[in-house]
């Protein structure tokens, strides 16, 4: 396995196409390139921009799949606690309370977390955390819910906890198997994610396929993950986050953002979306996701305001980030 070589990475750039224009005033100021795939309910490709088979690091969009592996291995959580296991949370008080409860149930504390120490994502939460005299912490890092779930899984199985981030650990072997199963794509590459957990590659269409399977599952760990994310979108992200807005605003949607310009989403009818912004920017993701969901059959009037991304001049909107495809690509 490799973390990537120039030969591996080149096709990601070579096949990318414009996904979103950044419009300021009457001019296109910038353009974001990337890849998008939209799957129909029967699994066929309804729309492909760029290369739907491009191999990507799905980053935190893989968290729901990691959670499935934990549930299969015996982790017994649901509701807001399972949503937090799937989360890239803001580090707000309500998020930290749930992470602590996950650790408490396992007989552990924040000192047992092995994820990378960081500030809360939410600016107000980060300010308060620092004002209270705290430094960067694994607890407030956005992946702490996933790591607390991993630790709880290990305790329940009698697996070691000190090395739970080792790719050869039974938990991570199980995660890898679930990623391959639900995406339908063999894991060709492995590396380390920003939080320290093993990260496994897939293709963009494989990522979309996995969310279709999550969103249509019944009586299974996949169904439990989908139910938790649908019922508790704030716990999946937090205040002011587009993942919270999409999860709250589109009935039945299961959506998860990922670092470096990734998003994946599935609907109860089996339609699904996955996207990768080539430059890794989060700026166009919401607009592109909204357009892709509209192509997938979601009411454009519902998703357009969720994807609205104004371009500001002196603090007021003077333009917008506009997807190059979909029902309002012409700016109407």
From TrEMBL:
InterPro entries: Asparaginase_II. This is Asparaginase. The gene is ansA. It comes from Cellulomonas biazotea. It holds the Pfam family Asparaginase_II.
